[in-house]
User: Fold these one by one.
Assistant:
Number 1:
Amino acid sequence: MPSDATSAPAKKKRSVAQIEADLAKTREELAATVHELADKVNPKVQAAKAVDRAKSMGVAPVAIAAAAVAAGVAGFILVRRMRS
């Protein structure tokens, strides 16, 4: 494997504005990812999604309420375990 500098790919020189634009884009992508992950682990969001799915399947309101309570309790237990 040659060790001279000519075998390495040439790096483009970027302006300060390009670097700042890349950083801003990366921050936005990271913020969106964090928001998506927060929604995935949020018990209220998950309970609401479960209720919506149950409603779309024609499940009885009592069953929906029971599922929502169960999801809330499970989320509460999960949060308590993560904090201890």
Note: The helical segments are 16-41, 43-57, 61-83.
Number 2:
Amino acid sequence: MTTEEARALLWSHIVAWDKKAEAWLARAELVPGTLFLLSPLAEYDVDLNGFFADARMVTSAWRTQHGYARDLAAFLTFLWLSRDDRSTVSYKPSLQRFLGIGVH
């Protein structure tokens, strides 16, 4: 999948979200305004996004939150685009150590 295809796919999911997203966010107990990341396939990783809902992150300055989200998105996009179809190596152990979160 090219970067342009991933962006187009993500945008199509964002456009379709509207009220379903609001209901899902309420069920997920996300604080309005909390940042979150989606995979290029528009998948939501509970463990990864739990980092953004952590009290330390929620109470951090907006620029800090945005910086973490931007840097993580860039890193995870790099991994996604750099992997080959045969790759079974998970990014989660390294991410767990970096963020200090429980990743399954």
Note: Helices lie at 3-27, 46-53, 55-58, 62-82, 92-99.
